[in-house]
Amino acid sequence: MNPEWGTALTPRTFSDERAAFLSLLPALRARYPGQYVAVSNGDVVIHGISRRDVTRRFFAGRKGPVYIGPVNPRRAVRQASPFRVRPNAGLP
């Protein structure tokens, strides 16, 4: 319990960090395109091009829940078509 606030602090969870990552994602796409980021306590604490490197660097000096995810550009949605393309179909 924090005596200044008079309420018990609730610890952050993995789900909290994942939610923070998802809410930060639009800004992360502009700042860290193609990289991995580690989000802890609702903020980006480490970023890099390798998930392994970001994970190693995070746990070398920190503890606690973390979400490490890729910052990819928006993915195109691929939808299967009910139609098949047949070669020379309907062509004389």
Based on helices, strands and strand pairing, what is the structural class? alpha+beta
Q: Which strand-content bin applies to the residues?
A: 15-25%
**Main sheet strand line-up:** 2-1-3
For the residues shown, what is the average pLDDT? 83
Major beta-sheet overview: 3 strands, antiparallel
Shape assignment:
elongated
Q: Kindly provide the radius of gyration, computed on alpha-carbon positions and rounded to a whole number of angstroms.
A: 21 Å
Distance between the termini: 82 Å
Order of helices and strands: HEEHE
Number of helix segments?
2
Low-confidence stretches: none
Tally of strands: 3
Q: How much helix, percentage-wise, in residues?
A: 25-40%
